[in-house]
Design a protein that fits this description.
4 copies of one chain form a homotetramer. Chain A has 13 helices and 9 strands. Chain A is α+β, with helices and mostly antiparallel strands and 307 residues long. Chain A has 2 domains: 157 residues, 3-Layer(aba) Sandwich (Beta-lactamase); 130 residues, 3-Layer(aba) Sandwich (Beta-lactamase). A 5-stranded antiparallel sheet of chain A has the order 3-2-8-7-6. A two-stranded antiparallel sheet of chain A has the order 1-9. In chain A, a hairpin with a 3-residue loop joins β7 and β8. In chain A, α5 crosses α9. Chain A is globular. The first copy, chain A, starts with a helix and ends in a 5-residue tail after the last helix. Chains in contact: A-B, A-D, B-C, C-D. Chains A and D meet through α4 and α8 of A and α4 and α8 of D.
């Protein structure tokens, strides 16, 4: 299939959509990103890369980082992890305290904020220290992305912390239920740091490739996790990857994927490829408006879908 | 692959599990079904059928019928249907009124009770009459199952109605929000009738085959719905098919599937096959205990999974 | 104290407020009542009556009737009644199903719709029959009001029933929890009938007098309930009498009182008097806008308050 | 009336109840208080004091301190205070985050934890500093109690803080909604300090006297707040003073009162007297078991009630 032609077509068709939606504006660092930008990259197992738009422009991956920390925690804790976080869709806006309270401080899944903060907490417990933890996370994303220089944007992380009261409330609530082990402030800060990792679509697409191929990066030949773990992470991306629009996304796109408020979405086609798309203006669910449409067009045009 | 051998293996391995869990006991007709029974059938596109256990014993398909009514309604209304019912996982026990009230009488998806009752209501609006509607539903399940004599168990339907106050409350609540068009009692009665359809695993497996093959039954060569509609139904089965354990099911089994409180589960492997399993004792989420394990074993042993 | 002068003063001061707020418009029969009307009556134990405004104009007492049915049920069932309905403020809009579901079908108090329907259900269980029950209710309100010809407006009751889906849903939900004994439709219809009783402020004020005097009407000398029961009804009026603005009302007015969406409010000053006020335009909580202000002015000017 | 005789009678009748219920055990300092203790004091406007039991034994007043901080804040901010905290009963367990989230961070009333923390926050904003604020609070309670040496138990406050995650979560959540002005940790610590004030029933009874007499202590002749403010505080005690059993308390006792998990309850009879009772074992709502019964007996025996 001529993926480059398909990407070009999508890019052209989406021009009228690029200015629609709103850039995340709860922190200044994200609010100042210009609308109208777009990039999309497809990476195949043989190393072929197809891109369109501003595919070398860095953006804040935000919640997409939750896939990487979940991967690390699953590798360390295996089934034990599910004592502290579930794998069910939340059925509520992504940062609600209500469900967390009704369910005794056990977050529904690793991709809602409470769950991702719990995952960070489990990593800090394992590595004893939040600096070591952040180092391990950065080492991992540098490996899977193929870019040894990847880093996170401290200004974004700091700004998130300044507006981080709701996430701190979530962490405190989990602590009150006994589902929190480390210092609340340090843990949430570490969470904001890994959310502030910046990538471009080429790096992000490459980073997801191991999940499309049973936990093994087909280019570097490194096996990061077991095939069974990779399948399970993909299942959670499908059912929980897009906040309260996960069902819609599965319905319209039909691929395991994870979005972030920075406007990025990373998706995989099992056994075939990984895809990253970026466009900063968000729809009402907090997912990239043009990014979601681009993936829907991609699966329609290619017939690729897991269903 | 030797599917018969795999089914035999699963059947043997599951012996110690068959008595675990509880048979649905909210109505006498279901409560008297004996624990310990098990059947499983795989149907391939070339008509090959592999079965194990009591595969010709009839059971009440209950909520699995929601897949068939959703199929009919989607075919009639297409996108218009989503004005009346969503496609998001519910994140709450399957018959809760709470979410329905907060979301103004629009059920989250067609597989929770409120959503399935709405679907029945849309069918009655289209066919003008509840008897005609039931006839159309029965005609359709007879076609897809290949059994022209399939029927529903009136005693079960009547018994459900006698204990149907919660479902009537759901319907009334939707009516109070303006999301209900026909007589409440008649519509809920029609819903209970299609839930009371009885099948064996061979018929149920065959009934799902069109969903595994883009809406076209590969045996009868009939195209019931478009490939795109089939994919979407599969997506909703994956994200919403197992009440509040849909995430768990996707995580452990990794196939689009729908369960019923009669102990049946119907699943598909896109492009490959359909599977039906039945064992009446349920786990705490209301899904067949041994049935869920059987499907997990099946995907582990065969390596089949959509992820 | 010169009550007539005080009422005249209040009437004059409230002129600018009479057109503010909205008349209840969920049923046509209530929607067509003209804004701007006002009446207020004070009744003392020696039979003195002071009125201002349209005090002989009939209006629909609506939820105020819940005080009278609660009185009858408390007299019949005494402490047993609390197995079926509580006495706690609801902290939620007056007809919410959410709380009812979380609390297993036991309504929080007899003045929210669910609670009042339960009370009607207990009366029908006692009197065996809904017609007999309605007769008993009408006989009671005729006695306490001193008007043997009081009746209810069938057109209003019928219209309520046509828009009664939410109340029917509440009744069904209670039935699903086992907290409902009679036919849902007949019981809710009986409830709507007693809500449709019409009175003027003179009759309504007189009707409440027995609650201000330990359960004994000081004019007719009839003892309807025990002093202890009267105190308890007054306590429930204070904590639950004004939907989700009961705290505000206690705070600003400081008297046990009950409001209805027809624009009436009935209040008592223990040991001193009863008061009725009517003005059809409602504030955002569903209580008479001018009526609430009139009572606030009355307690400020007279210094009467239970606190 | 012979109050001493009535107190003696109550004390005797309650002997079989004193060991029933559970002492608050979420912090060690409260958990080690011995069950079976009881004290009750009535204070009249002429300075007469009637006591029974261990009326000079100090206990932790806990939530009763919320009455005193609300008094101070109402005096400073008047109507402006209601922008930050409501006066409605909560209808939910006393420390639930759910309602706070649905109502955008505005606590329902000053007596639930969130509301009392907000009140402390408003005081710190006014006095600029948490030490000054605590000084003002202590000065006030020393004045109204007539004991210039009253203090708080630092060990209790520290222990509360160590188990204070839920209260910190409440504060963080309010901050995320913009309804919090000072440092979260310092404010919650100040809140725990005033909750840790220790009094005996004689001091506590005396402290409430000004609320029974229009804001003026009839013994010291000091006017602390206006009569109208006193009435409003009494109204909030009646509707919200006993967590989720406020309706029950109004129903059975019929007096404005406030309870604390230390086992104390302070009540007033407007224009007549103040009453304090203490018995550390709590009922299922978190209110003193024997204390509640003692007040119910007191109003039954004396006929005193506001209704």
């Amino acid at each position: 299939m001529n993926y480059q032609a398909i990407l070009n077509e999508i890019y052209e068709e989406l021009q009228p959509e690029l200015m629609r939606g709103r850039v995340a504006d709860y922190i200044p660092a994200l609010a100042e990103v210009e609308k109208g930008q777009f990039a999309m990259t497809v990476t195949l197992d043989d190393g072929q890369v197809f891109s369109v738009g501003e595919s070398s422009k860095q953006f804040s991956i935000q919640s997409i980082s939750k896939v990487f920390t979940f991967t690390l925690a699953l590798d360390i804790y295996s089934r034990e992890l599910y004592k502290r976080v579930g794998v069910e869709p939340s059925g509520n806006p992504f940062n609600s305290l209500v469900q967390l309270e009704y369910e005794n401080g056990i977050p529904r899944n690793p991709f809602i904020n409470a769950g991702a903060i719990t995952i960070t907490d489990t990593l800090i417990s394992h590595y004893k220290d939040e600096y070591k933890t952040l180092e391990v996370i950065m080492h991992f994303v540098r490996q899977i992305s193929g870019n040894p220089k990847l880093s996170f944007d401290s200004a974004v992380a700091k700004s998130e912390m300044e507006h981080g009261d709701r996430n701190l409330a979530l962490a405190r609530l989990m602590k009150s239920f006994g589902n929190f082990e480390n210092d609340v402030i340090n843990t949430v800060m570490t969470y904001f740091k890994h959310c502030a990792i910046t990538m471009n679509t080429e790096e992000l697409s490459r980073s997801m490739l191991f999940l499309a191929f049973g936990g093994r990066d087909p280019i570097s030949k490194k096996q990061f996790i077991t095939p069974s773990q990779a399948k399970r992470i993909n299942a959670v991306m499908l059912t929980c990857g897009h906040y309260d629009a996960s069902g819609e996304f599965a319905f319209h796109v039909g691929l395991p994927a994870k979005s972030g408020v920075g406007g990025g979405i990373a998706a995989i086609v099992p056994g075939k490829m990984s895809i990253a798309v970026w466009s900063p203006a968000l729809n009402k669910y907090g997912n990239s408006h043009a990014g979601t449409l681009a993936l829907e067009k991609f699966t329609t045009k290619t017939g690729l879908s897991i269903f």
